Amino acid sequence: MEILSILIPVSLILGGIGLVAFIWAMKTKQFDDPTGDANRILMKDWDDKPKP
Description:
- This protein is mostly helical.
- Helices cover 60% and strands 0% of the residues.
C-alpha cells in the first residue's frame, strides 16, 4: 500500500504534463488541417520525383 503514495502523485503529474502538451498543441494550431493528409493519401498523383 505504500507504493500507492508514490504511484498516485506520479500518475497525476504525468497526466498533467500530457494535458499541458495537448493544450499547447491546440493553441499553436498543430491540428489545423485534419483532412489534408487524409485526402493526400487517396490521390492518384504520386509525388515521387522532386520538383526542379
